[in-house]
Amino acid sequence: EAGVVQSPRYKIIEKKQPVAFWCNPISGHNTLYWYLQNLGQGPELLIRYENEEAVDDSQLPKDRFSAERLKGVDSTLKIQPAELGDSAVYLCASSLRENTEAFFGQGTRLTVV
Amino acid sequence: AQKVTQAQTEISVVEKEDVTLDCVYETRDTTYYLFWYKQPPSGELVFLIRRNSFDEQNEISGRYSWNFQKSTSSFNFTITASQVVDSAVYFCALSNNNAGNMLTFGGGTRLMVKP
Q: What HEC string does chain A produce?
């Protein structure tokens, strides 16, 4: 069974440019998460989807970040415009339902220069 | 509010030694779930175990074992006879209904197993 797939693996952009990350969760998983992981720290939740509905986006900086999960499957996370402090690893995860184990993708390492 | 603390930021052991990674959590919920994840250098978080708050039985899986003690709010992870391939960052995490079922991670413990 394929795991959570994220692309790209690495992205380098100049500040003020837009960037988008894509995630394909495990088939049949209703819950999808986007996490942010800074160097040397644990992941922090940005947004959680139950099917196509964003049920927890309280940690998402809405002035520059946006996300969508069309048809309750794939998801895209966008930053516009990117700032130097956005440099981090962006992790996507999915789970069968809430409070079950989440399976993570390999992440997208973003560097803003 | 919920919180997970992993006091050990880095541990170094020699191969075949046993090692215990500590995890202490805080939550006001009576129903919650505890997790351990492994993050090797490749970056992907690998699920290891999930326990719910009503199941305090310790668990053993091969060289891995977990000790859940509600009295001390701890969920410690022991690797027996460590191997070089165990080198990674290990994260303890907590979720519960009142926190929107989001995973709250600890800061992680970097384990280095030397040959």
A: CCCCEEECCEEEECCCCCEEEEEECCCCCCEEEEEEECCCCCCEEEEEEECCEEEECCCCCCCCEEEECHHHCCEEEEECCCCHHHCEEEEEEEECCCCCCCEECCCEEEEEC
Indicate the residue of A33, A89, A100 with minimum beta-carbon distance to B43: A89
Q: Which residues lie across from A36 on neighbouring strands?
A: A44, A90
Q: Looking at the predicted structure, is the pLDDT value of residue B98 above 80?
A: no
> Which residues in chain B have their CB less than 8 angstroms from residue A105's CB?
44
Query: How would residue A1 be classed by pLDDT, with cut points 50, 70 and 90?
Result: low
Q: Which helix (H) or strand (E) holds B66?
A: strand B64-69
* Separation in Å, CA B49 to CA A15, A80, B46: 39, 37, 10
Q: Quote the pLDDT of residue B100.
A: 60
Contact B105 A42 (CB under 8 A): yes
Q: What is the pLDDT of residues B17-36, one digit of tens each?
A: 999 999 999 998 889 999 99
CA distances from B111 to A41, A47, A76, B29, B108 (A): 14, 29, 33, 30, 9
Contact between A42 and B101 using a beta-carbon 8 Å cutoff:
no
In chain A, what is the straight-line distance between the N-terminal and C-terminal CA atoms, in Å? 37
Confidence (pLDDT) at B18 = 98
